Amino acid sequence: MAISKNNFSRNENYEVGSVDMSFFTVDFVSDVSAETADLSASNSTAGLELTRATIENNGVPVLMEGPLVDSDTQKTYATRTDCLDAISSTTTLAALQAAIRAIHGGGRISATVSSATVTATKLGILTAAAVS
After folding, report:
1. Of 13, 58, 113, 118, which residue is 20 to 30 A from 31 by alpha carbon distance?
2. pLDDT per residue over 74-104, tens digit each?
3. 50 and 109 Cβ atoms separated by less than 8 Å
């Protein structure tokens, strides 16, 4: 039996091997743009890599991360939704906030992050606030 082209229809309702993602923003409060050193080197300005390592060491894999925004004080990360626990009294985001604040003064970061906050967010870009 011959198959002709008109036997096929386009299916636009499909998923390509992805997981449900959630986003959270770390507000370092201070400018962390100089914190770009390699974490494996002996350097006191490895804050961005140290933050990522801190997030992942708390059982939250970083799938994506955005650029520094808001005068280089904020960064948004994406993770698997099933890695976040918002039900217990100590939520994952609160634990991340405490862990990120704890890296302050540890010798690997020179920026002041002792007041950093971690907030759940959704992915959306306002036209007036598009990051370039």
Report:
1. 58
2. 999 999 988 888 665 558 999 999 999 999 9
3. yes
DSSP secondary structure letters along 30-73: S--TT--S-TTSS-S--HHHHHHHHHHHTT----EE---BTTTT
44-80 pLDDT, tens digit each = 899 999 999 999 999 999 999 999 999 999 999 999 9
Closest by CA position to 54, among listed 117, 112, 99:
99
Q: What angle separates helix 92-102 from helix 47-57, to the nearest 10 degrees?
A: 140
Give the 3-state secondary structure of residue 121: strand
Percent of the chain whose pLDDT exceeds 90: 55
Between residues 16 and 70, the one the model is more confident about: 70
Nearest to 114 by CA among 106, 124, 126: 106
Q: In Å, how far are 21, 30, 98, 103, 108 from 115, measured between CA atoms?
A: 26, 9, 9, 11, 17
User: Phi/psi of residue 28, each to 5°?
Assistant: -75, -15
At residue 26, the 3 state secondary structure works out as strand
**CB within 8 A of 73, min separation 6: which ones?**
27, 28, 29, 30, 31, 32
